[in-house]
Amino acid sequence: MRNVLNSYGRALLSQLHGKILLLSVAPFILSLILWGALLYVGLQPLIDSLHALFTQYDFFRTSGQVLATFGLGVLKAVIVPLIAMFMLLPLMILTALIFMGLFAMPAIGRHIGGRHFPQLEKKHGGSLLGSVGTSLATFLLFIVVWVFMLPLYAFPPAALVGQAVLWGWLTYRVMAYDAMADYASAEERHAIMRTQRWPLLAIGMVSGAAGAVPGMLWMGGVMSVVFFPFLAAFAIWLYVLIFIFTGLWFQYYCLEALSRLRGVRGMTDVAPADA
Asked: What is the DSSP letter of 224?
């Protein structure tokens, strides 16, 4: 736990570094362009299809009764766009994760590795293709489990715990791969993923909890059509910032774990900002 907290403190300080802040620009712009185009072209057809489905099978009456049971009857008027947003949210998170792996994590690895782990040899056990493949495979499994967990929303405490664990697992599987792609061999990466799975899952769960904030903004866009584009853009930007901090946290923790595995000196003192 001490290494988890130490890595958290280091990540928090590094988040304020100018070079790290600039890393949010490319993933944010790419995510904004992609989702701006997708929402412009596909959001209304998706809402229309869901509305037709609800009308055909009388889901409006059923959903209204369920919402009224929990004192949320006011949401009946926006249940269709709310479900549409709920369906799109995981895809938005996936694209942010992929863009992070492509454009931010290599730079984070160079920044942290060069400044704080210069003694570590790079064994290049991961690759760009492996990063994308890991993200997609993990996400597909995530979607399957996520769908099966939807009934838990009838009991909110269980749903909250289940979603926290699931998002934590998704985050640590993707981020840990990217954090060790350059420095660890495939065997070393598998060993750390196996022996450090619980601390890595804890980091992922805390980061996933932070990720609930932009998710609420994204869902809140349903309530305001006028402000939806701005809320969606702000949510994407927050996701990118949170993922960059998460990437820093995983990078510090994983490289420290790799140092211990190899029996070499661990994290050094922070170098001057202009180093």
From this structure: -
**Residue 24: HSE in the Cβ half-sphere, 13 Å Cα cutoff:** 19
d(Cα 190, Cα 52) in Å, to the nearest integer? 47
CB 247 within 8 A of CB 105: yes
Per-residue b or e along 160-171, where b marks 16 or more CB atoms closer than 10 Å to that residue's CB? eebbbbbbbbbb
Long-range contacts of 4-10 (CB under 8 A, 24+ apart): 4/199, 4/202, 4/203, 4/253, 6/252, 6/256, 6/267, 7/203, 7/249, 7/252, 7/253, 7/256, 8/203, 8/249, 10/116, 10/248, 10/252, 10/267, 10/270
Percentages helix, strand, coil for the chain (3-state, rounded to 5) are 85, 0, 15
50: which 2 tokens? Answer: 């869901």
Closest CA relative to residue 63, chosen from 72, 188, 177, 271:
72
In contact, 218 and 249? CB cutoff 8 Å: no
Alpha-carbon torsion, ordered 129, 131, 136, 139, to 10 deg: 170
pTM: 0.81
Q: What is the pLDDT of residue 225?
A: 56
Q: Assess contact for 100 and 132: CB atoms under 8 A.
A: no
Distance, CA of 234 to CA of 191 (rounded, Å): 38
Q: What angle do CA 41, 47, 53 make, to 5 degrees?
A: 135
Q: Which residue has the tokens 């003192």?
A: 269
Give the residues of the chain that fall short of pLDDT 70: 70, 72-75, 153-154, 156, 211-228, 268-275
pLDDT in tens, 2-14: 889 999 999 988 8
Q: Measure Cα distances from 128 to 160, 188, 205, 246 in Å.
A: 33, 18, 25, 19
